[in-house]
Model the fold of this input.
Amino acid sequence: MWIDTHCHLDAPEFEADRDAIVARARAGGVCQIVLPAVAPFDFDTVRELAHAHGLSYALGIHPMYTGPLDDGALVALREALSAHRDDPRLVAVGEIGLDHFVPGLDHDKQDYFYTRQLALARDLGLPVLLHVRRSADALLKQLRRFRVSGGIAHAYNGSAEQARAFIDLGFKLGFGGAMTFERALQLRRLATGLPLSALVLETDAPDIPPQWLYRTAAQRAAGETSRNEPAELPRIAAELARLRGIEPAALAAASRDNAHAALPRLAALEAAEVIA
Done:
């Protein structure tokens, strides 16, 4: 059984067939999916989807959405986290972090929102789901200040040295579709060389499609799509198992244990559902 630790099920790309998306994932052996919010407008949506489908969720403000926001968004986040702090399906604060890749973003404003969300997570004892794009060192600098209770560096793409720093701070590293590309040599080296105990699996659906779903610009212009979905996770995992020379069942067990360690409420959720 697999856990997709990062999926934007609330995305408009899933509007027409959301129930079928979840059904396909379950049929493929994906037992749990974590739905991170990106801004106050989808706090209620991800929570309601998680409850409707037996999934889990995180509440946070994504760095790419901070541009038009002010402190009112942080107040809304604090109120939502406080209101639902005892909800067993609320597993983290996220998606939060820093994006130093997309041009035109205000780095200072991103850092302001990031640090205040780390403080909220620390005060509530919740782990965090981190957005990491060319920002690993800046993220680590603040993590050393705030000392949250771990979490996941989502779609990890930093160096091996930075990976070890995240691991030392109690974080797991998320790998998904990008790792399946044969030309992603550095990412594949990381996915195979890092300790198995550090890895969790994710799709980031509908984004970061694996190699077999990739479409060229010409294909996209012709109307072909490359929507990723949680049902792709077992095949993504099979590629990682092949690269590491282990059986998929061993990877499934290890990655599930790692997800439980990073997001402890997932383990409690799974136990409660087995009992039920």
